[in-house]
Write a structure and sequence with these properties.
The protein is α/β, with parallel strands linked by helices. 40% of the residues lie in helices and 18% in strands. Helix 2 packs parallel to helix 10, helix 5 runs antiparallel to helix 11 and helix 7 packs across helix 8.
Length: 362
């Protein structure tokens, strides 16, 4: 199966229209919190990616991290984005109102963050899921140059996804597992790549031949919805994977994972591995079909950047979340723990230790 994002041109256009309309309505209705007082010394401002603050993914996690730093001295607020056209205007609003640190949430916002940082060298900036480098006015200068007041908040999620792939392969009864992405961004494909490599590692050490649907590590290509809002397309992708025999599915598409988990719950042919946050907590209605979660601690990285700013110790030195520093982890098995053999659990813990020590390179 190739790119399911190409299914039904008319349907996709219609879905995109509905998604944009809904997101626009959300953007108009939101009220950011709370306004800084005279005593406030730091204003931490989050420019969100599309999907909303309650996307059960990295937007929500970033906001939770910012909120954890709220105090009489630190005010936090956010602006949502209905589309990428909102990124630059939202960041400009924050710069104009005197935010102390502006944090862009998501790979797509990086260029707007860098442009604003160059114009406002006295403001601190951070960007989630990107290196925050200046690629020139046309975006074609690679690898790019460092901008002193931009901190990159990145995550080695291929490490935790590798564990998820090994888990999926060991859990599968059909010998077929699957993954798909929202869009083909590096911050998405890194999960898919790690997952497929984890399955390959399981096959190598066990002498098995578990197949991965939805991603090819050689071609670096796979199945994508085309956005992060088309639930119907995500549902069709999930159904197709089940029809091909996949009994463990790993959606790397933010809130679209709900379509997959819903399908798992309805037909009971598969289980789902959640992404970014602990699905057991953020989507409790699907607990019975959530095998685990590949967690990216965006909340911790955002909180740390704000803390550095408040302490007057902000620097442009980047942050990389790994298994070793718990910036990314494979979540608990929760309700399905009894269905994951003790031997498999022990093997995954041993592999995690090897990755942390550097003995096993992902």
């Amino acid at each position: 199966m190739k790119d399911m994002g190409s299914l039904g041109g008319t349907l996709k256009k219609s879905l995109r229209y509905v998604a944009v309309l809904a997101a626009t309505t959300f953007a108009v209705g939101i009220i950011v919190a709370p306004t800084a007082t005279a005593a406030t010394s730091v204003k931490a401002c989050l420019a969100l990616d599309t999907g909303g603050v309650d996307d059960h993914s990295f937007n929500e996690s970033a906001w939770l991290g910012a909120n954890s730093m709220k105090s009489s001295k630190i005010a936090v607020e956010y602006l949502p984005a209905a589309s990428s056209a909102d990124f630059a205007p939202n960041i400009k609003k924050f710069a104009d109102k005197g935010c102390t640190i502006i944090i862009g949430v998501g790979f797509q916002i990086s260029a707007a963050i860098v442009d604003s940082a160059k114009l406002n060298p006295k403001i601190n900036y951070a960007i989630v899921d990107d290196g925050g480098l200046d690629h020139g006015p046309k975006g074609d200068q690679w690898p790019g140059t460092k901008v002193a007041n931009v901190k990159a908040l990145e995550f080695a999620t291929d490490q935790s996804s590798f564990l998820a792939g090994y888990l999926a392969a060991g859990y599968s009864k059909t010998g077929k597992v699957a993954t798909y992405g929202g869009m083909a961004f590096p911050s998405v494909t890194i999960f898919m790549n790690g997952y497929a490599k984890g399955v390959a590692y399981y096959n190598k050490v066990k002498g098995k031949s578990v197949k991965v649907l939805g991603w090819d590590t050689v071609k670096q290509d796979g199945t994508f919805v085309g956005d992060f809002s088309s639930l119907n397309i995500a549902l069709q992708v999930s159904k197709s994977f089940e029809q091909q025999g996949a009994d463990v599915i790993f959606p790397v598409a933010g809130g679209l994972g709900a379509a997959t988990a819903g399908q798992s719950l309805k037909d009971k042919k598969s289980v789902t591995i959640w992404v970014d946050s602990d699905g057991f907590k953020v989507v409790p209605q699907y607990r019975s079909v959530l095998l685990s979660s590949v967690i990216k601690r965006v909340d911790n990285s955002v909180a740390a950047a704000i803390k550095e700013t408040a302490a007057g110790k902000f620097s442009g030195t980047g942050y990389m979340g790994t298994l070793a520093n718990k910036g990314t982890v494979l979540g608990p098995y929760h309700d399905l723990a009894k269905k994951v053999p003790a031997k498999l659990q022990n093997e995954i813990r041993a592999i995690a230790k090897k990755i942390k020590s550097g003995a096993l390179k992902v």
